[in-house]
């Protein structure tokens, strides 16, 4: 525990000491310990140590004293007190010049003052400071627990911590949502931290490792410290403390702040756990209500309005349904090897965060929303405020996907958008979005966005897929392509689908498939030779496209036959 040189000089024993050099630094120079040293210094003086000396061994010449003082300065000592007496009667000008050059605190003492008394007084001052610090920590710990147990907001917690440590304080969850902050927080601190976190999320996603509990960031007011709040091996959020001078901390300062802020992070972690437990019930009620809306299983309009009001939903507004299926969930989980939580725990938390982000994104666009996650699908009813409802939905999906990509870099979503929207058409709109998702996932693949209005042909295909003659025709046209794909691991069906979707544009198709132009041309010739169809003939193109669509609609039954 440290005190300052001004605290040392304020002691009764040193009130008559003469500060020869460095007086302007007494309010910033720290003192961690005190010792008595005579020549030689060698490695006996530690950094931030207040040194006492009688000068014995330096009395024969000013050069000896100058060399001794220089060694003390180089050791990183806080200051040096020389007792004037039989060995050193006055401080030579060369020594004073040396001390001034190094901005070093040099003082002289009356010979009659015993060093043992000074040692005892300085050590007692350090111990008093330590006791005061520990009492302060204990008071902060007790008061924070009282606030948390009383259900106070994190704004109150941040304000209390700010007053106790005289620093700006921000408290945020791990998505970067600021949940509490002290009054009059430096706006640049908040802006710089959000940029800092955005970079962290870009690098590591929402689940960061514990390699660094402390992180520094610079803003116009100085330096700020970001501390990770964690429990059960999982990051819950962050505390950001601003108002520091140039980093880094000394080891002593580091230990002091760790001791102090660990109590703060523990209290905030408890708050997060309490909040999560309280939200779980509300989430379940909201999930159940939105799920029942989508299935039209609420018995009466009155019951629907009553439940909607109690949950804070506004159902007397026009809504459009969006349905999304998260892809590669297990792969995303396995990619984070540092996580100590189970897949089920991670998945539950992931779903909740996705739901919260879906609601937050709607709020940022000044739209109402209702969200649930059921049967491996994210179901969203989004308020419509524009006559181009599907375009508004696309903008929303684009923004949400960008945000989720930041939090979960390896996770992607496949989307379906309903055609129907308006008042009290939740179930029919949901069914359309779900069908659009299913068709788009088969037709285009994962991570696609499909609109129900654009699936007319696919729905026609579905209605005729039971025609055995058509199925046999599709099999005869495509069997060679499927066997080739199985043997060579080259999906010519997908190549044709992208080529046809791009209206036979070779350059655009090559870019989308990430192929060299010549490689694509080779594949297209191979499709023609295997199927006997010309890609330049409109009838052959129609036959190929129809066969592929029929095949894709029956792909679940055909997968095992060809080893897919």
TrEMBL record:
Span of domain CdaR GGDEF-like = 300-439
> Which residue ranges does the record assign to the PucR C-terminal helix-turn-helix domain?
492-549
| Cross-referenced InterPro entries | CdaR-like_regulators, CdaR_GGDEF, PucR_C-HTH_dom, PucR_C-HTH_sf, PucR_dom
- Residues of the Purine catabolism PurC-like domain: 7-126
Q: Name one Pfam family in it.
A: HTH_30
Q: Where are the transmembrane segments?
A: none
Superkingdom field = Bacteria
User: What is the name of the protein in this document?
Assistant: Purine catabolism regulator
Q: Which organism is it from?
A: Halalkalibacter nanhaiisediminis
Q: What is the lineage of its organism?
A: Bacteria, Bacillati, Bacillota, Bacilli, Bacillales
């Amino acid at each position: 525990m440290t005190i300052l040189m001004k605290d040392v000089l304020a002691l009764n024993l040193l009130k008559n000491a003469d500060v020869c050099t460095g007086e302007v630094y007494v309010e910033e120079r720290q003192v961690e310990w005190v010792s008595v040293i005579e020549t030689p210094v060698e490695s006996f003086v530690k950094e931030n140590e207040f040194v006492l000396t009688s000068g014995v061994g330096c009395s024969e010449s000013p050069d000896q004293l100058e060399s001794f003082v220089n060694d003390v300065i180089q050791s990183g000592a806080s200051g040096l007190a020389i007792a004037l007496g039989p060995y050193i009667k006055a401080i030579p000008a060369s020594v004073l010049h040396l001390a001034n050059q190094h901005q070093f605190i040099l003082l002289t003492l009356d010979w009659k003052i015993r060093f043992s008394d000074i040692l005892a007084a300085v050590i007692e001052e350090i111990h008093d400071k330590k006791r005061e610090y520990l009492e302060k920590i204990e008071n902060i710990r007790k008061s924070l627990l009282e606030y948390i147990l009383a259900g106070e907001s994190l704004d109150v917690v941040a304000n209390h911590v700010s007053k106790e440590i005289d620093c700006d304080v921000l408290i945020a969850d791990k998505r970067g949502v600021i949940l509490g902050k002290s009054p009059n927080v430096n706006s640049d601190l908040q802006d710089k931290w959000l940029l800092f976190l955005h970079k962290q999320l870009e690098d590591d996603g929402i689940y960061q490792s514990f390699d660094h509990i402390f992180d520094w960031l610079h803003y116009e007011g100085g330096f700020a410290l970001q501390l990770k709040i964690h429990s059960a091996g999982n990051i819950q959020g962050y505390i950001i403390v601003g108002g520091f001078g140039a980093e880094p901390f000394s080891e002593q300062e580091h230990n002091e702040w760790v001791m102090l802020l660990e109590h703060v992070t523990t209290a905030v972690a408890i708050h997060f756990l309490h909040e999560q437990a309280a939200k779980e019930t509300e989430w379940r009620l909201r999930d159940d209500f939105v799920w029942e809306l989508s299935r039209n299983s609420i018995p009466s309009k009155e019951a629907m309005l009553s439940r909607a009001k109690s949950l804070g939903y506004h159902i007397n507004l026009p809504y459009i349904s969006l349905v999304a299926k998260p892809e590669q969930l297990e792969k995303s989980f396995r990619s984070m090897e540092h996580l100590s939580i189970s897949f089920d725990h991670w998945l539950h938390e992931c779903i909740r965060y996705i739901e919260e982000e879906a609601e937050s994104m709607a709020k940022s666009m000044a739209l109402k929303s209702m969200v649930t996650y059921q049967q491996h699908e994210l179901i969203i009813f989004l308020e419509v405020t524009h006559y181009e409802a599907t375009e508004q939905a696309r903008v929303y999906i684009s923004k949400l996907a960008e945000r989720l990509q930041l939090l979960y870099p390896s996770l992607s979503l496949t989307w379906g958008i309903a055609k129907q929207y308006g008042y009290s058409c939740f179930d029919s709109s949901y069914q359309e979005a779900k069908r659009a998702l299913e068709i788009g996932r088969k037709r285009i693949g994962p991570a696609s966005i499909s609109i129900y209005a654009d699936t007319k042909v696919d729905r026609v295909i579905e209605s005729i897929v039971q025609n055995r003659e058509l199925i046999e025709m599709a099999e005869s046209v495509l069997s060679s392509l499927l066997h080739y794909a199985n043997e060579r691991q080259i999906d010519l069906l997908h190549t044709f689908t992208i080529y046809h979707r791009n209206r036979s544009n070779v350059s655009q198709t090559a870019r989308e498939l990430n192929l060299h132009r010549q490689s694509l041309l080779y594949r297209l010739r191979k499709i023609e030779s295997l199927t006997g169809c010309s890609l330049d003939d409109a009838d052959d193109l129609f036959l190929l496209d129809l066969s592929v669509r029929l095949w894709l609609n029956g792909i679940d039954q055909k997968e095992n036959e060809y080893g897919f």
